[in-house]
Amino acid sequence: MEKTQLFVKFILSWWDTNRRNFPWRRTTNAYRLLITEVLLRKTTAKQVSSIYAEFFKNYSTINELAETEVDELEKILYPLGMEKKRSKELSKIANFIVEEYNGKIPSEMDKLMDLYGVGRYTASGVLCQAYKKDHAMVDTNVIRVMGRYFGFKSSKKRPRDDPKLWSFTTALIPKGKCKEFNLGLIDFAGDICNFRSPKCDLCKINEYCNYFKTN
Ligand code: SF4
After folding, report:
1. pLDDT tens digit string along 146-161?
2. Ligand 1 pocket by C-beta < 6 Å: which residues?
3. What's the whole-model pTM score?
């Protein structure tokens, strides 16, 4: 089997039995997914898990979030750190969506990326998981796997802004399976092909991997 096909097939089957279990992985609600992606920045999934249920119990819709005072939000966001910045950011996003889109989370890349502080990764996460659109989610972990397995080298100073890398990763997504593929890749990058000590001996695609062959 061809190296690329093998990789895609492997990621899908690996994720089938090894997926990480976070509460936001079980929803297709665009509001929850957007807010969660914003919260996941500069903190850990464990920390976000610790406030997830309470947060969405208190603010079950974007309108409720928009109506909430920033001071109130700060209290619930305190365990994540940077609560002042985070609460202002969430409030701006929520108010903008209520005013501009009548409370409906946009399903277009340009509109999502127009939201305060929202970049391509967050927008893609919403499009893929809520609206089932085949967009890649490229973060530093995914960049590492693309570099190791395929030998993809970005010429950009910040590879995460490299359109070629986004196109390369997007082209790998099997039609209609962006959630499984993206999350599989993210979990595989964290658990097996991790930054410090990749578990290459356990990796079932190692004989096709550039990094394994050359190290
Ligand atoms: Fe990553 Fe090692 Fe597997 Fe290559 S063989 S994809 S470096 S874990």
Report:
1. 999 999 999 999 999 9
2. 148-149, 192-193, 198-200, 203, 205-206, 209, 211-212
3. 0.94
